From TrEMBL:
InterPro entries: Flavin_Rdtase-like_dom, Flavoredoxin, Split_barrel_FMN-bd. PANTHER family: FLAVOREDOXIN, FLAVOREDOXIN-RELATED-RELATED. GO terms for molecular function: FMN binding; oxidoreductase activity, acting on the CH-NH group of donors, NAD or NADP as acceptor. Residues 12-164 form the Flavin reductase like domain. It comes from the Bacteria. The lineage of its organism: Bacteria, Pseudomonadati, Pseudomonadota, Gammaproteobacteria, Lysobacterales. The keyword Flavoprotein applies. Pfam families: Flavin_Reduct (PF01613). This is Conserved protein of DIM6/NTAB family.
């Protein structure tokens, strides 16, 4: 027996990517963080990520002005901080200082890496043609940094309305991916 869920709750079913922190640096040099769950891989080569960042987000203005950001991937130990970051605005608050996070220099963008995160992806805007209509930015990943010394690597996934799931066991079926082996290089 199926129970119906309202169509506007589709994200609760399909949004499986990890929560990320979007780090930006505005034209005045001020760094900011926002929490984001609405993102998706668009393609592998070049590596493109679609990200929903609207004008209601303080980071939207910095991304519009500079065309670059960092997608920082936090682990479950940062879950409460990640939620708290998403519940305040960077227009009046230095989120790095307030939440005790450490900005680190990136190599190809001015936006900062987040030292406490397991992964950081330096990105540049590849296409902003969908921003006006859908708030959808297409970002090209320039560099990826992984903290291999981190003990905690479980990612968090938003399921809507304050519910989150946490990565568990990994199921490795790579040997069965014969059709895609050449593409995955």
């Amino acid at each position: 027996m199926f129970n119906e869920l309202p169509a506007e709750k589709a994200y609760r079913i399909l949004e499986s990517g990890p929560i990320v922190l979007v780090a930006t640096r505005d034209a005045d040099g001020r760094a900011n963080l926002m929490t984001m769950g609405f993102h998706m891989m668009v393609q592998h080569d070049p590596p493109l990520v679609g990200a929903i960042i609207g004008p209601w987000d303080h980071s939207h203005h910095a991304l519009s002005d500079t065309g670059e950001c960092v997608l920082a991937v936090p682990t479950v130990d940062l879950a409460e901080t990640v939620v708290d970051i998403g519940n305040c605005s960077g227009d009046a608050l230095d989120k790095f200082a307030h939440f005790g996070l450490t900005p680190a220099s990136a190599q190809t963008v001015e936006a900062p890496l987040v030292r406490e995160c397991w992964a950081n992806l330096e990105c540049r805007v590849a296409d902003d043609g969908w921003v006006r209509r859908y708030n959808l930015w297409v970002l090209e990943v320039q560099r990826v940094w992984i903290d291999t010394a981190r003990k905690e690597t479980r990612l968090i996934h938003h399921q809507g309305d304050g519910l989150f799931s946490v990565d568990g066991d990994t199921l490795d079926l790579g040997a069965r991916m014969t059709k895609w082996r050449d593409l995955m290089g």
